[in-house]
Amino acid sequence: MTSPGRQAPEVRRLTGSRTVAATDAVRRFAVLVDEVRRTGRSVLVTQHGRPVCRIAPPPTPESTVESLIEALTSGPRVDPGFLETVETITRTQPRLPRSAWDE
After folding, report:
1. Half-sphere exposure of 103 (CA within 13 A, CB side)
2. What is the C-alpha to C-alpha distance for residues 82 and 85, in angstroms, rounded to an integer?
């Protein structure tokens, strides 16, 4: 068992970031959130020396508009013959009747 203010060894191993007791986190929540925002490093919150939660920056998105554009531009090209066939079919299709929703 650790004394108040001392961090249990298992807590130090779990995180490279800072740890804060839950009672301190309650009192200083806005400051901790600002610290996480500024530094990008998470803060581990402990209760009785054991980790209970983490205040952390949001995860980075798995995909972005830039990654979509990159995937589309680096992918295989459409066969020109297939594209011409699709355009021909599209031009020769009869027009759809107007919907009551359009009015």
Report:
1. 4
2. 5
Tokens encoding 65:
């508009």
Secondary structure class of 76 (helix, strand, coil): coil
Among 66, 15, 23, smallest CA distance to 42 is for: 15
Model pLDDT for residues 66-87, shown as the tens digit of each residue: 888 888 889 888 888 998 999 9
Q: Are 41 and 47 in contact (CB under 8 A)?
A: no
What's the predicted TM-score (pTM) here? Answer: 0.48
For residue 92, the surrounding DSSP H or E stretch is helix 80-92
Q: Sheet of 50-55: strands edge to edge? A: 18-21, 43-47, 50-55
